[in-house]
Each structure stands twice: as structure tokens, then as C-alpha cells.
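Table S7 (text form). Paired inputs.
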Amino acid sequence: MSQLVSSTDIREWSGAPRMKGLTALGAVILLLPLVLPNAFYYDVVIRIAVNAIIAIGLNLLIGYTGQISLGHAGFLGIGAYGSAILTSRYGISSLPALCVTAAAVALLAWIVARPILRLKGHSLAMATLGLGIIVSIVLTNEAQLTGGPDGLSVDGFAIGRVAISGEKNWYWIFSAVLFLSVVLAQNLIDSPAGRAIQALHGSEIAASVVGVDVKSYKTSIFVLSAVFTSIVGSLYGHYSGFINPGVANFATSVELVTIVVVGGMASIWGSVIGAVLLGVLPQLLAGHEGWDTVIFGLVLGLSIIFMPRGIVPTLQGWFRERAR
């Protein structure tokens, strides 16, 4: 039972008003366009927002529930290709196509989660890795439907009769989705359901003893994180206008998990900070040809060695210690 009680310690706010964080995020979103000089920087910020939204959903699964996934890029690929195929080949409007794709991903994730989430540790990691590889292979080989290795063009996105185009307009779309994702995730973690999934991370046996439906909660969070990823995949496909099977490859899954680990396990804001770090750092190292990967790996390695809980939880711990 001590593990069950201690699992609540991973709640990141510890009584501090979360509205301060949301206010800061809202202020950054509103003020950032004033300092972005051109479309390239808007594109960088959009890609950061994409990774942050996916990482938030993935952190709910890995950080809070304790279930590893190395195949979430597969859901990203399904989201992107699902909307692309429905709009370009079947004439369905972009917003309904996004919703239909998200519903299909939710169903697939629910079907897959039932057997996969019975596994633990390395077995679970390998099973989710296999799922991602299967999706990547299907997207590559089903050329008549997906365009194969050459990729697929994606129609534009519209909300009703309003077509979304240009980096600035897409910036507001992705920023709004990011803000809503943070609010949704925080409300979930602070709810009774959130306390239940945190109990799973501490001890599934202890959680089941006090009445937590372990299988149901694990499945629900897996489905929720998959839907997060699918929605972002659909939006990103419409934004970029072109997709290829690389969107669902293993490297993408590893990058998403790295964002969660470096930013902070069981920390919503850690997912955001991790996405910012991994989005900005490659741009800062772009001028060091041949050394950018080395420096990037060194920074990540040092952060994991000296901040094993992740950047945000470690800094929060330091501030709490200094405040005492």
C-alpha cells in the first residue's frame, strides 16, 4: 500500500495553482507571432507543437500509467494517411475525415490494447514496436492505396467553408490544439480517474486491491494517447500537403519517447519543454555540420545522467528544496 500512496507524489503541481502555467502558455502563444520573422520559424514552432501534443498523450501512458510504447508513430501514420485517403480518394471533407480516422484509430487501439497491455517491461516495448513496424510496412507496400514509398499528396484543410492555409493560420490551429491538450491532460490527472492511473504506476496489485479496474484504465489511456496522436497526424498531413511512410517509422517513435523522458516523466509541462528542447536544439546546431548529432547526443546523455527524472521534475525538486 505504501507504493500506492507514494504514487500520488508524481502529481506535478503539488498544490501550486496550475492556472499560472496555463496563463504563461497562453501568453507565449499570443506573443510569439510578434517575434517570428518568417514562414521558416513558424514551421519550426508548428513542428514543436505537433511533438508536444503527441508527447502529452504519450506521457499519460508512459509517465503516469507506466506502460511503455515504442510504436506510437504507427498511430501518427494512420492519422495522416487516413485523412489523406478519405479526402483525396473518397471526397470526404477534411474535418469529418479527421474525426472518422480518429474513431478508427480508437477502435484499433482498443482491440490491440487488450492483449498487448497484459505484457510488461521489455515484452510490452517489443510488442508495441512490432505494431509500429507493421503499420510502417503496410503504408510502404500498399502502393495502390497509400502511394507506397513515393508518398501521397494531401488535400487542404477546411473548417466548414473556411479553408486553412499559410503558416500563420496553421500556427493558431496547432497552438489551440496544444492548449486544449494541456488543459485536458491536467484535468484528467487531477480527477479521480487520474489518481487511479497514477496508482497503476506505483503498483497494479495494490491498485486492484483498492478497487481500480486495472485493465480498463490501462486500455483507456492507451486509446486516449493513440487518439491524441491520430488527430495530430491528420492535421499535420493537411498542413504539410504531402506525406510518406517515414512519418510512421521507428525513429519517429524513439524521438517521441525521448521527448517524454528528457522533458520529464509524469509531467505534462515536461512534455512541452521536451518538445521545445528537441525542436530548437537541432536548429541551433545546424551550422556545426558533422558535429550536430554528436553534440545533440551529448546534451541528451548528460540530461538523462544528471536529471534522470527529466528536466521539469528535477527543476521542480530543486526549487522545492531551496524554498524550505
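Next pair, protein 2 of 2.
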Amino acid sequence: MRPLSERTIAITGATSGLGRLVAQDLAATGAALLLHGRDAQRLQQTIEEIREATGNPHLYPFLADLASLRQVERLADSITVSQPRLDVLINNAGLGAGPDPQRRELSADGYELRFAVNYLAPFLLSRRLLPLLRREVAEAGSARIVNVASAGQQELDLEDVMLEKGYSGSRAYCQSKLALIMLTLDLAAELAGSGVTVNALHPASLMDTRMVREWFGTPQTSVAEGARHLERLAIDDALAGVSGEYFDQDRPARARTQAYDPRVRQRLQKLSRQWIEAATGSCENCG
């Protein structure tokens, strides 16, 4: 990869929690950062604060609500049009169980909200940005996708992925994170030998974030601990070429068994493309 100061790194969910701290840490290296948020005022404030703290002028805002797959498409298009290359994509944005874990919520496209934001959005964004990541491989030899998953995982019922029966916020969150690990394994296999690596991680347990405080009350670990492990996967040259792994912090680990079933992953991919096509009118550029 290029020297850190010459890399371009995209981070979703960069205005709070883990994404916010990782953005500031990586800005201090001099890297160009493409920072995503869904609130324009908060996004601009984040950029101003990080710029003041680090002196890095290469911070660029990208506004999108990941609960809308059309907005995810526009986000990918905006990045592609404005950037000559992309070294790292960090799919960090996500939703927890929600303030009322028993209330099922829907995305702008009518899909279960946590599944839409935590899985379908990175599915579409990653695939739409693959040409830009491949361009970086042609120039610098490698590029990376890092997916922020969780140790909280639950098998998917492929007959009721949207949880129309027996809904709980915890189940919705946990199945979306297992689906994200399945995406990681599929992309890594598809991109093997291309120079684009794809890994997922559980950064830390119950970090001090709004999501955790809302869901569990008292945090158990700091955001800084999770940031350290995420940054390692994103920029550490020692991990060059490592792909298709699920990390528990800094250690390769095993996800739930269903993640390694190729038939389940194939079925989920097919369904995912159907859902994206139904929401956007096309899935030509989503794999």
C-alpha cells in the first residue's frame, strides 16, 4: 500500500462513536478521509473538529441515509466521481437493538431497518465501490474492505429474514452482523488474487457508545480499544494479503457455523440482489 499520508480511506458512520474516533486517529496520519454521516450539520461539525485537532485539510463530507438503498447508490456514485482512487473502505455504520427492542422498524425501502442498514447498505456500497478499489490495486498493488461486525451473531431464517414473525431488536441486530460476515467471506472468495482484501471484526465488547448505553446501560470497554483493533485491520502493513477472516479484536476467530455454509450464503446473495433491485430498479453494479 501507499504511505499512510498518501492513502484515501472512506469511513461510514464517522460522526459518532467508533467511526468518529477512528476518523480522528487516521486523520492524524495525514491520510485523505471520506467521512460519511446522515446529518449534514453533525457531519460538518465533525470535519471541522477533526481538522482543528489534526491539521489535516484532506477531509471530505459525504451525506447519505443508509436506510435508503437509492441514497447508498448516490453515495457510491459521489465517491466514484470525486475520487481518483480508494485505498480502504471501512463499513462501520450500524444500528443496535433500538430504544424499544420490541418495536420492528422499516427502512425507506420497506425492509427491516437493522438488516437494511447493517447489511444491505454495506453489501451495495462495497460492490459499487469495487471498480475504484480495483483502480487503486492497479496503481499501488492493494486495497482493503473492513466490515465492522460483532461477536453478537444469530443464524438467519431465510424464510423470514425481515423478521415479520417473532421480532426482537436483539435478534435483528445479531442476524444482520452474521449476514455481514457472510458478505465478507463471499467478497473475499470472489476477490481472491485481485489485490483487494476483505475482512470483518468484532472490535470490542460493549464499548462506551450511544448504542451500547441505550441497549445495555453500562459500557464495559472504551471506544479507544475498539478503534485500535479496527485501525490495525485498515492500515497495518503486516496484514497485507490477509483476507476472508473474521477477527475477534486482534485474533482470527470463528463466526457462527451458518456463516460457513456456502448454500446459505448463495441463497442470501440471491435474495440480497432481489431486494436491491426491487428498491433501486437495478442490480447491474451490485455483483
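Residues 233 and 239 are 7 Å apart (CA to CA).
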